[in-house]
Amino acid sequence: MKICYSIFTTYEQEMIKIRNRSAFLLLLPGVLAILLFLFFPVIQIALPTFAGHFGLSNYITFLQSHYNQGVLIRTLIIAFITMIITLTLGLPLSVWIARQRSTVRNLLSVVILFPILTNAVVRNFTWIIILGKNGVLNTLLLKLNFIDQPLTLLYSDMAIVIGSVYLFLPIMVTSLVSSVQELNVEVEEAAAILGSRPLVTFFKVMIPQLTTGILTGCILVFAGAMTAYTTPQLLGGNRHLVMSTLIYQQAMTLGDWSSASVVAIILIILTVLVLGMMRLVAKQLDRRSVND
Amino acid sequence: MAELEIKNLNMSYDKHLEILKSLNLHVKNGELISILGPSGCGKTTTLRIIAGLLRQTDGQVLIDGKDVSKLPVHKRNFGMVFQSYALFPHLNVFDNVAFGLRQRKEKVSIIQKRVNDILIATGLKKLEKRFPDALSGGQQQRVSLARALVVNPKLLLLDEPLSNLDAKLRVSMREEIRRLQQLMHTTTVFVTHDQEECFAISDRVAVMNQGVIEQFDTPQKIYRAPKTVFVARFIGYENFLSVTKKISSTSFYVKNVKLDINSTVDGVTSLSIRPNQIVLGSTAKTNIVSGEIQSSVFLGNAYRYTVSTCIGNLKVDYLGSKRLSNGQNVQLELPAAALLGLKK
Amino acid sequence: MIKTNNKVLITISCVVLFFLIAPLFMIVVTAFGSGATIDFPIQGFTFKWFANVFAQPDFVSGFEMSFLVAILASALALLVGVPLVYALTHYHIHHQQWFQVLFLSPTFIPEIVIGFALYQAMVILFQLPLLVTLLVGHFLLCLPYVVRLITASMTMLDVHVEEAAWIYGSSRIHAFLTITLPSIRSSIVAAFMLSFINSFNNIPISLFLNGPNLNMLPTSILNYLQNNYDPTVSAVSVLLMLFTAMLMILVEHFIGLNALSKDRS
């Protein structure tokens, strides 16, 4: 018995070795590519930024500037407002789409998917046409005599928010639609039979069940809006910089590559924080439902 | 606690697809009735219309004589237990049960007391802090039942509530449902496709087929005296003989065999008998037919023979210690007391 | 219970859908305006802006370059991504979750930072050609799409099917090529399409990585837009939308559009 057993284990060990070797070979190109093309370049720009006091003096200098503070806060506020608006607009639309008959639902999914796959320049350009000084909106308002001279709509924080909402709404909707589709309609029917009005059912029964989908959508939108370049570049102009346009300006316009690196590292840290927070909260939510 | 009356209920999704055909049903105060039928017969549709989850094409649903057809679901004050239990996954057992009372804006102390009482009555007190996905199927169904009953509904609607449970649990749950229903004296409509289940707990049973209630009677009457071919077939009658000629209301020809029956209904088109009620090797003079054994199957409590006769193949259950061989000729008696006359 | 015939819900949904669709329609209309700048509603009708699109060398070469880079980057991402997903889903690997995070890590780094960092490391430090660096950047963009989509379909595969192939004498590689790969065909196509379109549309990564002879279409449009405000941009936008629509029709025809929305992080 003992001999048999040992033969068996050597065979097993041999198999494990073979499997390990092939797994190693299959993973190698991917791991190397990530380390070499992503981690190395990021570390390479990160290292020189750490100098002086605890290595943080560059960051302290950056954050002491009121101008930079403004950019950082603008970035966060725009991302936050975009997230709130996409959620508010996206929730009802998602419920509506998710509950349609499958033919209608598929058609609407195409309508939602099309903007996602369309170039961001195109989708921002349309808002230049609408919000510009001689744009559609101003022309309309002038004709209706609501205003006597064109409003400055373009090149403002508001324009960036509108553009970002337009850009990220479809992403929020796709994330929510799949969550709504997973809901058991009978749960809402049960609520209705127990005396709950549709609006109460929406807030007290549906939304609590959608937390994971809502969270996923919110984080995707927040992280996306926070790091987007095209929208603030086209709709914000030179005076309404956010972190990503600041990187480009520092590096390409001012030639200050080390400042650009500092901004880049801060943006990475913010993104990792936001995405990490999502995983944490999602895990927390998963745990809550299985406790006893 | 209320009386339910359904008058001329019609439901069709489009002109060609009629789900319900002028349905009538009257349920007395405190009664538990079942709607029994195969899937697709319209029983769940009926229940959903009563609940207000579906709007009927035509007809009325009356509660204590008042038409509630226009009343939205959340104002009807019913209780419902779903096949999928439909518990609120984000609320624990206590909050699930308390949901209906909170919608009614009851005082916190009253909610506390009534939820407590029902949790004790259903044996859920120890689980009150648990969330639904940490409960077994039986426990979830109990919560669902408690949640429906705690609001003192005018009407309790049960939509195949036991079909997701295993056999043993099903028996104890149905007794639980009956006990609570009797305790609270709640008028109840129970939808199921399982005859044993509904016979066990119902005061009356409505057997439904293709949007029509074929028979509405006590379980005993349905079982012993089905009136239509469909009902008889659904509750386990096997041998169906088409009437060739009617002699009197209790006497018929099937092919050239004369068969008498004891009790009858209007417009008999078929006769039927259970396999275990046919007497094999009888010496009686009437209601007799002879035949040849084709095949046999051992059922445990008896052998089931397929006997070919001049009026068609008959299934006969016969408990003899020895198995009769195929090809043997036998005399079969279809006793008048056991033979049923059925409408189409 | 919320029904789709709820009036409030219909109203909100229609307004939001209008907000999503109307702006794109407006671009289409402005592309045919004959005025020298963009008007809405348009004054006259002309096709000249479409002709002008093809008269812009940056647009034409940009399209070629974007197309080429998108195809190569997507192919590269599949070539690297499919084997690693196979390893992650079919072998017992220690710290498998960490590998998963590692391969999705490009999504944790803002795209503009990827471009910025690659420019400094690859172009300035290692003196690599711009085109290679650009390809690397777009490869990093595509890899997470491949990893997510292929993982989703590989985990749903019945491992026994492949084992059955081994038992009937098929070698591992042969079994992978003839059994496993064909059964995840639709998600491979979906991953390729999603990678392709995202690479094709991407701006932030290419931003630092363009040079005198290296123009990507979106960045060319961006540059054009900063100096001009005429319907040429509308026209090129219409062409891009047609391009997107064509891709969607292709995807719908071969694997169904639903395959694209299976991409969940």
UniProtKB/TrEMBL annotation, chain A:
Bilayer topology annotation: Multi-pass membrane protein
Occurrences of domain ABC transmembrane type-1 (ranges): 72-278
Location in the cell: Cell membrane
Record's keyword annotation contains Transport: yes
Primary subcellular site in the record, as a coarse category: membrane
Chain ranges passing through the membrane: 23-51, 71-95, 107-130, 150-169, 210-229, 262-282
Domain of life, per lineage: Bacteria
Keywords, alphabetical: Cell membrane, Membrane, Transmembrane, Transmembrane helix, Transport
Family of this protein: Belongs to the binding-protein-dependent transport system permease family. CysTW subfamily.
Protein name, as recorded: Spermidine/putrescine transport system permease protein
From TrEMBL, chain B:
Gene3D superfamilies referenced in this protein's UniProt entry, alphabetically: 2.40.50.100, P-loop containing nucleotide triphosphate hydrolases
Record GO terms (molecular function): ABC-type transporter activity; ATP binding; ATP hydrolysis activity
Domain ABC transporter, residue spans: 4-235
Keyword Transport: yes
InterPro entries reported for this sequence: AAA+_ATPase (IPR003593), ABC_transporter-like_ATP-bd (IPR003439), ABC_transporter-like_CS (IPR017871), ABC_transpr_MalK/UgpC-like (IPR047641), Mo/tungstate-bd_C_term_dom (IPR008995), P-loop_NTPase (IPR027417), Transp-assoc_OB_typ2 (IPR013611)
Keyword Ligase: no
Gene Ontology CC terms: ATP-binding cassette (ABC) transporter complex, substrate-binding subunit-containing
Pfam families: ABC_tran, TOBE_2
Keywords from the named record: ATP-binding, Nucleotide-binding, Translocase, Transport
Protein name: Spermidine putrescine ABC transporter ATP-binding protein
UniProt organism field: Pediococcus ethanolidurans
TrEMBL record, chain C:
Main location as per UniProt: membrane
TM stretches of this protein: 9-32, 67-89, 101-122, 128-147, 188-209, 233-255
Topology class, membrane: Multi-pass membrane protein
Occurrences of domain ABC transmembrane type-1 (ranges): 63-251
Signal peptide residues on this chain, from the entry's feature table: none
Domain of life where this protein originates: Bacteria
A biological process term (GO) from this entry: transmembrane transport
Gene3D superfamilies for the chain: MetI-like
InterPro entries found in the cross-reference section: MetI-like, MetI-like_sf
One GO cellular component, as annotated: plasma membrane
Matching PROSITE patterns: ABC_TM1 (PS50928)
Keywords carried by this UniProt record: Cell inner membrane, Cell membrane, Membrane, Transmembrane, Transmembrane helix, Transport
UniProt subcellular location: Cell inner membrane
The name this protein goes by in its record: Spermidine/putrescine transport system permease protein
